[in-house]
Amino acid sequence: MKAAIDIAEKHQTPFGAVLAMGDEIFVEAANQTRQLHDPTAHAEVMAIRKLGEHLQKTDLSGFTLYTTCEPCPMCTSATIWAKVGTIVYGTDIPTITKFMPQISLRAQDICDQSFTDIEIVHGFMGKECTQLLRKYG
Ligand SMILES: [Zn+2]
Fold first, then answer.
1. pTM of the full predicted structure?
2. Angstrom distance (rounded) from CA 1 to CA 58
């Protein structure tokens, strides 16, 4: 999660994401919607794209997604399609909503409706991640 916070800081955004296998970080990404003029360029989607490109495959089973903010419905769905095993997030959607508009649909609720069994770790380093929202939100 420290790496996800660092990449967010580097890009001056509250949103950073990392895909790791065990202790090994494979890719890191930040939200780049403004720079790329792409509303889908959320940190989590960017990380999934990078890792797919790197590994030349769409099945990211066994990877853990660390993300500073709870993934939105688009990113949660992308995570499901990529078969990522675990999501670890910092700040939750109700907290993010205090800083900017969000779609009020929780990652857990989306995963519960999906075909895979994704483990979600809620609020990991939440205080540090919320600090990013105060700074760049
Ligand atoms: Zn998203």
1. 0.97
2. 23
Q: Is 128 a catalytic residue?
A: no
In angstroms, what is the span from residue 45 Cα to ligand 1's centroid?
7
Q: How high does pLDDT run on average in the chain?
A: 97
SS (H, E, C) 82-101: CCCCEEEEEECHHHHCCCCC
Separation of CA 23 and ligand 1 centre (Å): 24
Give the strand pairing for 24-30 and 16-21: antiparallel
Phi, psi dihedral angles at 120 (to 5 degrees): -120, 130
Q: Which residue has the tokens 């990404």?
A: 29
Q: Report CA(70)–ligand 1 centroid distance (Å).
A: 8
Q: What is the mean pLDDT of residues 70-84?
A: 98
Paired with 27 in beta bridges are 19
Task: Report, as an integer, the average pLDDT of 101-121.
Answer: 96
Confidence band of 56 (pLDDT split at 50, 70, 90): very high
Whether 55 contacts 82, CB under 8 Å = no
Tokens of 127: 């205080």
**Considering 9, 28, 44, 53, which one is annotated as catalytic?**
44
Distance 4 CA to ligand 1 centre (A): 14
